[in-house]
Fold:
Amino acid sequence: MANICKYRYSLPMESCIFCNLNESQIVEQCDAAIVIRDQYPVSKGHTLIIPRRHVETFFEATDDEVVALMYAVRKAKEQLDEELSPDGYNIGINSGEVAGQTGIGISTPLALD
Structure:
């Protein structure tokens, strides 16, 4: 298992489902974000883009982290284009339980159509 989180802020690593991923689960990574395939995909190729720093919502990410997340979305899209050639994509950011956020921390889902 690899500890992929760069910083330890509000959450202990034991509570973070993304802190202890197997290296084989990581599709792409940079200093600020990682890309993994969703373990419970809504569609083939369903991908999660996750910041390395623990933040509760997307809106708590720094400007640099937001740029890194969107860059990672683009890189994941390019990879999925080559692998699966989908007709389209949905990019979601769920912030808050009523908006569909299901865990502590943020991930940016990239689903294929």
Observations:
- The radius of gyration is 13 Å.
